[in-house]
Amino acid sequence: MASGNGEIEMGLTAERIKEGLDALAQNDARVAEQLERVGYPQARLRDRGYKTLLRTIVGQQVSVAAASSMWNKLETELGADFTTTDLLARDFDTLRACGLSRQKQGYARSLCELVEAGVVDFDAMPQDDDDAIAQLTRIKGIGRWSAEIYLLFAEGRADIWPAGDLAVQEGIKRLLELEERPGEKETRALGEQWSPHRGPMAIFTWHYYANPAL
């Protein structure tokens, strides 16, 4: 699943999403019909770098408010521009006071250690999407879905397809008028028809799923 784009642009902008969906709509009447019905989705952009994945780790299995509180405490302790070295220099109790459980600390340290060792390089991710996913999932606590979301939102990789996302699956069910929500394997197979614009299509499925008029 190579990206095939040479240099990777950062973020799928609204313009790039529109271009991808327009290309799909030319050959897929269902996409064209629903685009007309619900319109184009907004861009979902994230910063490139380890902090975006660290935020993912911090936010796992807690509310948005709790995750925001933990992040604010981390920045108070480490400084707004803290580095991987800064985090690794703190002991368990210090990070625990910021709200990080033992498990989250393990994941955070795994991320920072791999960055410092050069195993994960956010400035030079493999251009092949599968290779990039494999590199990111070496980080403890980062599964395929988290890696795909990072590559889609932070690197703007246009053919990323987070098939394990429940909202994507539900959106596909509605769009294709399926009797049941497809599982990850089926969703991944169904997504092949929208390559090489699966990233914009994934963002559209979230937009479609969340539309209150449907």
In short:
The protein is elongated and about 55 Å long.
Describe the structure.
This protein is an all-alpha fold. 57% of the residues lie in helices and 0% in strands. The chain contains twelve helices and no strands. It has helices at residues 14-25, 29-38, 50-59, 64-78, 84-88, 92-97, 102-116, 129-136, 144-153, 166-175, 184-191, 198-210. Helix 1 (14-25) crosses helix 12 (198-210), helix 8 (129-136) packs across helix 9 (144-153) and helix 10 packs across helix 12. The model is unreliable at 1-9 (pLDDT under 50).
**Global morphology:** elongated
Query: Total strand count, please?
Result: 0
The largest sheet, given as strand count, sense and whether it forms a barrel, is: none
The CATH H-level homologous superfamily of the largest domain: Hypothetical protein, domain 2
Low-confidence stretches: 1-9
Please give the domain count: 2
Mean pLDDT: 93
What's the tally of helices? Answer: 12
Category from helices, strands and their pairing: mainly alpha
By CATH, the topology of the largest domain is Endonuclease III, domain 1
Order of helices and strands: HHHHHHHHHHHH
Radius of gyration: 19 Å
CATH architecture of the largest domain: Orthogonal Bundle
The rounded distance between the terminal residues' Cα atoms is 33 Å
Helix fraction bin: 55-70%
Features of the shown structure:
Endonuclease Iii, domain 2, 2 domains, 12 helices
How is this fold's topology laid out?
Blueprint: H1 14-25, H2 29-38, H3 50-59, H4 64-78, H5 84-88, H6 92-97, H7 102-116, H8 129-136, H9 144-153, H10 166-175, H11 184-191, H12 198-210
